[in-house]
Amino acid sequence: ARGEIRAWFTLPGRERATLEVVDVAGRRVERREVGGLGAGIHVVTLGSERALRPGLYFLRLAQGGRVLNARVVVIR
Predict the structure, then answer these.
(1) Which of 19, 42, 63, 69 is the most buried (most CB within 10 A)?
(2) Are 18 and 45 in contact (CB under 8 A)?
(3) pTM
(4) DSSP 8-state code for residue 52
C-alpha cells in the first residue's frame, strides 16, 4: 500500500463489526465501525484522513465474536 490501505472484506450480516489498523507496537492507528454496511463484499479505504507512515501494520476485522487478522506493509 502507498500511504493508505484499501481493505476488501465480506460481512455475513448486519450485526456490529469493527475494522482496526494496529501498528507493530500494538497501538490502534485507526478504527472504523463497518457493521452498518450490511451483508456482502465491501471495500474500505483506511489512512485517507491521516496518511499512514511507512511500516508494517495489522488489520483486524471483528464481528459477532469472530476475528480475522491480516498484515499489510505501507511503503512511500
Answers:
(1) 19
(2) no
(3) 0.86
(4) P
Q: Mean pLDDT by 10-residue block, N- to C-terminus, for the chain (76 residues)?
A: 85 94 94 94 87 91 94 89
Grid coordinates given for 6: 484499501
**What are the beta bridge partners of residue 2?**
75
- Per-state percent for the chain, helix, strand, coil, to nearest 5: 5, 60, 35
pLDDT at 70: 96
CB 46 within 8 A of CB 9: no
> In this structure, what C-alpha cell is assigned to residue 27?
497501538
In the 8-state DSSP scheme, what is residue 54?
S
Q: What is the CA radius of gyration of the chain?
A: 12
C-alpha cell, 18: 469493527
- Cβ neighbours, 10 Å, residue 69: 11
**Coil, strand or helix at 26:** coil
